[in-house]
Amino acid sequence: MKAVLATDLSAASEATIQNETCLDCLGRIGIDEIHLVTVVPSNVHSGMPGIDFEKRRERSIRRYRRVIEAAGFDVEVHVVRGTPHRRIIGIASTIGASLTVVGSRGKSPLENRVIGSTARNLARTTETPLLVNRIERGVDDPVVLKQHLFQRMLYATDFSENAERAFEAFSYLRHATQEATLVHVATPKDPALPEGVDPEQRLGELAARLEDWGIDAEIVVRQGDPADEILATEAAVNPTTVLVGSRGHSRLRRLLLGSVSEDLVARATGNVMLIPPA
């Protein structure tokens, strides 16, 4: 499996690359080839006053490549120019990536918050599964907040087709997952579910599948605003990653998993993994 690992060469985006546990987790789910991508914004050039970007970029990329290769991965490097999220999506599509990994917030040497905005844009438009890796904020030497990326998963579902597709990610995540909490949020704004679906029964069936894979699973049914209740569940069970589809079944925009996933990327305390539609 191939993964795109996007970096803006900041201390924040470096945290994942330098973290042995994070890299080990990627290896456990079957990633063996990592494409390291850094995007130079179109409005930045090496001749800008006070910017020694070319040398910084070369030093950082060499160091990152050594670390990733030492962890046992094949590595390809892509240095491109353009709009970050569009170029990342393009590269992921071209190489047939199974996963894109991006830091949740970063401040590049160019004084642009490249990765922070890129994560939000990728959440809206990604065409491959996206892992938004939560990095410590407000410090000079940040660390990854949840190093064991897939150890404890919180799976949120509205029982839509894409939510079911997100659940299928456990077919490879299970090699690194020990515990999972499955949550459905019922809301009076749009109470309709696919015909014949009983939330607790359906969650129980999904939990049984996880138990067959050796994953301890529990189910939770809540009522209220989907994003708020998913985040409340995250606070209660402390997962390492929230897993959700990036589209849902509801016709109401607020209930679309597209908008919920965007909220999760912005507000979750841990990592967020989004699965786009087929």
UniProtKB/TrEMBL annotation:
PANTHER family assigned to the protein according to its UniProt record, in alphabetical order: STRESS RESPONSE PROTEIN NHAX, UNIVERSAL STRESS PROTEIN UP12
CDD domains: USP-like
Annotated ranges, domain UspA: 4-132, 150-276
Source taxon at top rank: Archaea
Protein name per UniProt: UspA domain-containing protein
InterPro entries linked: Rossmann-like_a/b/a_fold, Universal_stress_UspA, UspA
Family: Belongs to the universal stress protein A family.
